[in-house]
Amino acid sequence: MFLYNVTIIIEDAAAEEWLQYMNEFHIPEVMATGKFVSNRLLKIIDSPNEGTTYCSQYVVENLADYEDYQQNHAAKLQADVQQKFENRFVSFRSLMEFIV
């Protein structure tokens, strides 16, 4: 199993709007792709960055499902967030493998 992690640092002034958008639209759309088995949204408490930092995490059973998500769904979903919150956030993504 693998964990797809998206870390987002968003301007404090847009944090509440972003959180609502994630909960009502983005996360349900990601999960509706059928590629992930679970998800969680975390807020980083001790971030050294300006703004509010969140981690949106999605569990995927195998690399084939992750790669299918990246090839067929990710670009559109990321573009939607980019358009709605343009110039108000930065993000980076990582894929991790569960060991234990």
Describe the structure.
The protein has 100 residues and is α+β, with helices and mostly antiparallel strands. The protein has one domain (11-97): Alpha-Beta Plaits (2-Layer Sandwich), CATH 3.30.70. The chain has two helices and four strands, in the order βαββαβ. The protein has helices at 15-32, 63-84; strands at 2-10, 38-43, 52-60, 89-97. It has a four-stranded antiparallel sheet, covered by helices on one side. A hairpin with an 8-residue loop joins strand 2 (38-43) and strand 3 (52-60). The longest helix has 22 residues, at 63-84. 14% of the residues are buried.
Please write out the topology.
Layout: E1 2-10, H1 15-32, E2 38-43, E3 52-60, H2 63-84, E4 89-97
Antiparallel strand pairs: 1-3, 1-4, 2-3
In short:
The chain is of the alpha+beta class and 100 residues long. The chain contains two helices and four strands, in the order βαββαβ.
Entry keywords:
100 residues; alpha+beta; Alpha-Beta Plaits; four-stranded antiparallel beta sheet; 2 helices; 33% strand; globular
Structural class: alpha+beta
CATH C-level label: Alpha Beta
| Count of separate structural domains | 1
What is the level-2 CATH architecture name?
2-Layer Sandwich
Low-confidence stretches: none
Instruction: Output the strand order for the largest sheet.
Output: 2-3-1-4
Q: Span from first to last CA? A: 10 Å
